[in-house]
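Hi V.,

You were right to ask for the full record rather than a summary. Here it is.
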Amino acid sequence: MTRRLAAAGAVALLTAAAIVTATAPSDDDVQTPLARSGGVGERVESRTVAVTVHGAVLARELAVEGREDLDTTSPGVWLVVDLTAVCRLSSCAFDESELRVDGRRFAPATLVPFPSFVQQSPSAGLPYRQSALFELPRGSASGEAELVVQTGDTGALDSVAVVRLPLPERIDDSAAVGPVRLVQAAP
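Predicted structure:
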């Protein structure tokens, strides 16, 4: 009887260990920042930033205000994301931000306007409306994307703002890109 009880206990422990091992997070999952998610038009806050995406357009070239001489044609397409972002704790840069589409990651373009979305370092609490630019291959510009807005000092188990972004179905010939501007209210 005790031998059967010990064997049943051993089987139960091995089963529990197998379940724990199978459901345990990977090392990458343990070290990855935590996503604070939202959609277009919603304010999404992480510990360090808050962002509101107002909309997005796809275009073959950019019409940059004040830089009509600049050639911005692309063999792919431009995704122009209209957003308002604010650093919450201190001056920050959005240099680790990215766009994720079908498992692929795209860095924001630093082409225009100056300072671009990733080049500026706004002071804490000051909301700026701006365009984040992403150059995408034509074939990947459909479906849904995730805009991940984070600073360079985002660490393990910190939070990042993730905005679910349905990609537009239509590709325009041109998209207007204006300068970064301070807005009155936080996003």
